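Hey Z.,

So I finally got round to the fe (ii) ion thing we talked about over coffee. Here's the setup:
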Amino acid sequence: MTLQPLACKFLGARLSLVLLLLLAALPVAAAPFNVYLLWDNDPATSIAVNYHTEGRASKMPDPELHYDVQPRGGDPAAYANHSMGTKREIPEFPVDRTLNLASVTGLQPSTTYYFVAGDPQGGYTVERSFRTLPSGDEPIRFVTGGDINVSPSTVRLLAQAGKQDTIFGAIGGDIAYVNGRIWEFATWDQWFKNYDENLRTGDGRMVPIFAAIGNHEVNDFESDNPAVKAPDYTFYFGQVQSQGMTYFSRQIGRNILLIALDTGHIAPHGGAQSAWLAETLAANQAVPYRFALYHVPLYPSHRPFEGEGSRLGRVHWEPYFNAYHLTTAFENHDHALKRSKLLKAGQPDNDGVLYIGDGCFGVNPRPVDPAVRPYLEHQASAAHIWVVDVDSKSVKYRAVGEQGETLDEYHQKRKN
Ligand SMILES: [Fe+2]
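And the result:
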């Protein structure tokens, strides 16, 4: 072999190496999926658009959100406004996955916005829309439930929730039943797909999520760190909606305070959490309706009344619910349908708290006692969602089944 071909071969190898290094440094092209909405600020004037992409965050372009008050057909350049987002990863996630977040504030209340999210390399979502919540006294409808999973029943109930033209979804824990095992990410992907495809309003709007934690969000690792103990919940919801806390609250319009609590999965009932609950309720006495959303019921419809989670809630939280006149507690975990009497310390009281639940938004309904439990007004073994209509004069609660049938309803007049 002469010297010239050898030199060419050497030069060729060097060039290939340089090309490979250049390619490795370039952003990876990956299309958005798992698109969902949270709030990290006032729901009347902000939105947090989340989506996932395949690839390492360090190699991905920064996420972009293009939005407008008119539909623009999906061409990013056609939208009047845009903002840049941030990228994160879940440590030790089994595949390369970037969590993209674009938060926007300064929006107009009660306004429909149209948007695309993504980046020029990987492409953008199709045009999607959402509606900001009212800032004042206007009526608000939301749906709530927990114990969801990815079953055919889940899909039917999500579709029923969509038919209600709800403006947000309040989820009371046990969301995808992955038990904090990040290697089972495909189930979460299916969960987001189900929610996105089925829980849409009549005009196609997406429905923001407000999510409390349940026992099936945590693994059995020895850790107090939510990012280790409940990695999916923490990274998919917690870091955005609550800065990593598992108990938090949000004012919704003028009439609603919605409090998410942790029934002992990361934070114990007592101590810092119950102190925070007391402070939050005391500081919001002027808000007409104060709702709590959490997983394990204080007044269960299937499990024993003396179950540890139920008992701890009654010991550490119920005195504050009563003292500060909580309007309603949305409970879950028991996989049945229930509505309590108005209760104070377990006894019927016209000035008491309403407890409704009990988390059967896709899981198999569990049996209830043949006779109605003394603290309950209604109990049934039935898959359902609760549809809640709030206005300045009253709250209406309606349990809706898989076929859209009304399973229970209750009308509660405003007290203050
Ligand atoms: Fe549960």
